[in-house]
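@channel sequence for tomorrow's demo:
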Amino acid sequence: MTTDEPHELRYVYAVCHPLGAPLQAELTGVAGAPPRQLEHRGLVAVVGSVPERDFAEAPLRSHLEDLDWLTETARAHQNVIAALTTVTSPLPLRLATVFRDDSGVRLMMEQEERRFRTGLDRLAGRVEWGVKVYVEEPGTPAPAPAPAASGRDYLRRRRAERTARDDTWRRAERFAQELHDELSRHAAHTRIHPPQNPELSRASGMNVLNAAYLVERSGAEEFVERVDATKGREPDLRVELTGPWAGYSFTAEEQEADT
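structure tokens (generated this afternoon):
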């Protein structure tokens, strides 16, 4: 006997400890499917059903090169992780982590059990905050300088411009280091990411600090206040705070760079 019904695969969002309450009834994730809990050996994988035609290996590889599809999928993935973060401290898995069926998910949980438990212990009761510092670009171009009176005058002017830029960068780096040191004292773990490429991030200015901080939920308000107090402290420097997030930067596989 044959069937034309399409096969559905299992999309895994995160692993967490058993939840004290069911997931929101109206919550939807990737491919519009509601996530559900799959419990195994005292851990829970939050999974959803996705169509094989889109998430089997070959079509998925093609889809991941489609920016619109990737953006929509990432948004749905994050929607589920954000909902989980309001009720627990999940260990998020990589985007498009897919298995053939529930048995495949359970096998993965057995093989990765030690890593998952270590990561969940690290994340328990904590959330991630992101802090970035940028050197602002001038809002309006400076008026054109008067023509140099001589070659010596021109070289003097160029040296002065170069010195001003160097002073700004030294001040930015000193400020960023002092801010990072201060915030690190109020975080359980920290991670420094590479500076963001302005062409990719589309953020104005040059990124001199791109850091993540794993903070106790109970200390989140104080942490936010500390960051907010630095905004506007230095001219030409911009401080951005994002979060709270699940501990994306502090999963077990990333801990080699943890401080």
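heads up for whoever presents: The chain has a mean pLDDT of 86.
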